[in-house]
Amino acid sequence: QVQLVESGGGLVQPGGSLRLSCAASGIIFGSYTMGWFRQAPGKEREFVAHITWSRGYTYYADSVKGRYTISRDNARNTVYLQMNSLKPEDTAVYYCAAQRFGTSYDTNGYPYWGQGTQVTVSS
Fold first, then answer.
1. Coil, helix or strand for 14?
2. DSSP strands (E only) in the chain
3. Which of 83, 98, 117, 122 lies 20 to 30 angstroms, CA to CA, from 35?
4. For residues 98 and 24, is the Cβ–Cβ distance under 8 A?
């Protein structure tokens, strides 16, 4: 049974930082591209970043490029999202997702999802 469990969300002031974690089980972690998506109230779920299974290539949405960093620890079956210089428009539920040997930026390309963690950026 595949499980993706996110943690690390919370309330932070504009300009602040948070680090999200996603622990995976039930998959051969090293064979999966791991992605982060987010969904703000009333909006569609959108791609944030992903890191590939091989060589750890990273890709980011333009809206977070230069502020967010995705990384993975294959020994711990965990993917991270370091978020710096946070803005109110970054407020959303953040989801971790997994796709085997894939490079999709689309939600349809990811068969496995976590339950999400709330990130709120507000003063």
1. coil
2. 3-7, 10-12, 18-25, 32-39, 46-51, 58-60, 68-73, 78-83, 92-100, 112-113, 117-121
3. 122
4. yes
Enter the DSSP assignment of 123: -
User: Looking at the predicted structure, is the pLDDT value of residue 39 above 90?
Assistant: yes
Tokens linked to 114:
């976590």
What pLDDT does residue 102 have? 86
Helix (H) or strand (E) holding 106: none
pLDDT digits (tens, 9 = 90+) for 1-36: 999 999 999 999 999 999 999 999 999 999 999 999
Residues 6+ apart with CB under 8 A from 38: 45, 46, 48, 90, 92, 93, 94, 95, 119
**Cα–Cα separations (whole angstroms), residue 44 to 2, 15, 40, 58:** 24, 25, 7, 22
Residue 59 CA to residue 41 CA, distance in Å, equals 24
